[in-house]
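Honest question from a wet-lab person: if I give you the sequences of every part of a complex, can you actually get the arrangement of the whole thing, not just the pieces? Trying it with mine:
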Amino acid sequence: MSSTPRSESPDNSFEVLVSQSVGTEPLGSLADLLPVLARDLADIDWRLQRILGARYATLTEAASYACSTGGKRVRPLLIAAYFRALGASSVEKIHALAGAFQLIHTASLVHDDVIDHAEARRGRPSMPRAYGLPLAIVTGDYLFVRAFELAAEYPPSIILRCGEACADLVEGEVIQEEGRFDLSTGKDHYFRVVERKTGAIVAAGLASATEIAGADPEVVEAAATYGRSVGIAFQIRDDLLDIFGDPDLMGKPLYSDFREGNPTLPSLETYARLDGRRQTEFERLFQLRRKHARHLLRLHELAEEAGAEAIVAEQARWWADKAVRSLSVLPPGPYRTLLERLARGQAERRY
Amino acid sequence: MSSTPRSESPDNSFEVLVSQSVGTEPLGSLADLLPVLARDLADIDWRLQRILGARYATLTEAASYACSTGGKRVRPLLIAAYFRALGASSVEKIHALAGAFQLIHTASLVHDDVIDHAEARRGRPSMPRAYGLPLAIVTGDYLFVRAFELAAEYPPSIILRCGEACADLVEGEVIQEEGRFDLSTGKDHYFRVVERKTGAIVAAGLASATEIAGADPEVVEAAATYGRSVGIAFQIRDDLLDIFGDPDLMGKPLYSDFREGNPTLPSLETYARLDGRRQTEFERLFQLRRKHARHLLRLHELAEEAGAEAIVAEQARWWADKAVRSLSVLPPGPYRTLLERLARGQAERRY
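Yes, you can. This is the full assembly:
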């Protein structure tokens, strides 16, 4: 169980992660926490690198590639910060846990990229693009399997939390598939997808960490609420950036949800707000199975005319507020304040 | 942990399984064991059906479909028979284990069918054919996840055995991918693939059951040898039947390995045994990325001329013999005799 932490983070992405996650206001004295958390994340990375080693070099390489392009490490950051907010002076006990949740998330991104025919992720070719479909599928499986090996360090209740979160994740994908190219699904459908695909896994990660810390059930419950709400805020913002973001900052092209026909919140709000003729036009274009650049740009234009950006941004903020309120069970202190910033940061991030 | 066994097997496939698995010689007094094992398998099925239930009906349905077409349940049968051969009067302790290994196997078949563009399995459309690629991918993930939830009932050492077997399985798939359309890979490559894709998972299932029974380490090791050898015998026979079997009996078309360019043992033996001109022809046809019916039939003809069927059948028998020898650590008795029959049956089966 004991790990030999590496002396430094494998790359400078911690700074990127922080600048993405805490918003634009100055950090003040909270900046003192960053070296501690950077070290925590480096330790978690190290644990991951050790478990990803296969006897067969191609697989190790593919798994490492998936981890380098998959996910921003928001989940391990939230888990480490929450664990420290509970008063822990070391996060060694949750290295494997944070690693497991990061792997589950990465595995799901790899399989999502297969399903969505994604070209790029974080500025590099997506897994299926870089390694082909067969290797992308089995590398995703490999990451799931290694995640459960990490989870095997913990009591059955924690393993079951991981399992249920994965089942939610899969369920979210199935529900999403059923709603493709269909704007009549409505917001209930959208939130069912988002809660399962993003909320459940962050909730389970934080609830598990809190349980491992030996906290009371009400704190475990509050941690789950924080995780679920931050996850949903993150996803709403993600869906917004897919239309209104800066593709150079994000490292992937815009409009993937338009192309794949995902009725995300910006599209649903646009559809609900447009008048008759433009509403029909929006729906007709949205339903096209193959969209050309001019269709995508027109969809963007209509979303802009409907004022979707501001409305959807406000909803991401609503979930961030909910996350912040759930923190009242924690003792006041710098880590709790940082968790507030992290929640609000998800609803404001530019990439 | 306790289950309410159903009063009967969900279908008559136990009889099919037995007739496939024990060869053509009469069973004699061993037939008395069959009702006991049929009940064990029905209990394991029942445990599986309970864990596969998702909140979302489409997913439950897709998972059930995968289980109904995926795998012949040889693995749970071997696990139950081995556990009883160790002297257990009830197999309740390994219901979840046998279920987990059956799910892992099924998950891997689903993802294999995506990768290999398989049309059919056990006489019904394959998962990707029946449900589409996205649902096939996530249903495979779902089956892996539920397998680990079942494994969570056991100590970490068992969970790690499951995990390592899955990692082997994935590694086998990666090695297989790298050898496609290449007959120069040779038998070492073939056995590396087969040991990982089929041997490791059966070995891990039996070793786990033996460990749960509290057996000595040498018995655990012997159980792993039995499982690995039976698995390899099974796979060699499978690869033989893909060329020389009866497609109506098997419920799937012939020549999938020719089509996908898998250099299996029958192709390697054919290639090694043909003379110059016919060897070149075999290689040229084998390497075609798209093969027409006449190419497939000519490959079959050349394999027949090379006498590959008898040579490969003999190698399957060699592995069955190895499995039988490993049973000497068990107390003599009807279950041990049945395990011998089950090993030899894998090397003789017609479908």
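Two things worth pointing out. Chain A has a mean pLDDT of 90. The beta strands of chain A are 120-121, 124-125.
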